[in-house]
Amino acid sequence: METVALHTRLRAGREADYDRIHAEIPAELDVALREAGVHSWRIWRSGRELFHLVEVDDYAAMRSFLASHPANIPWQARMAELLEVEDDYSGAVPDVRKVWELPCTST
What we know:
alpha+beta; 4 helices
């Protein structure tokens, strides 16, 4: 399994819209994400900055699966209205890389 960090930015003034829309994603999108191998997808927001942490079997395969999925297309169109840069699904490699991690300790 892969853990992938992502960063996106909202358009100015769309913070409340983003929070409201993400309060409940469509059931068919939930199913599609799970079918694509997503185990967990968490999003934090600081102002307009969005930080995602995705646990997925294969990130590139997930993006390929979702690019043309009928549950994802309308969701991405909705997100395109809110995000500063629309995700066109052209890349399968995340642009956030891990720099440091506090190692787990065993007790």
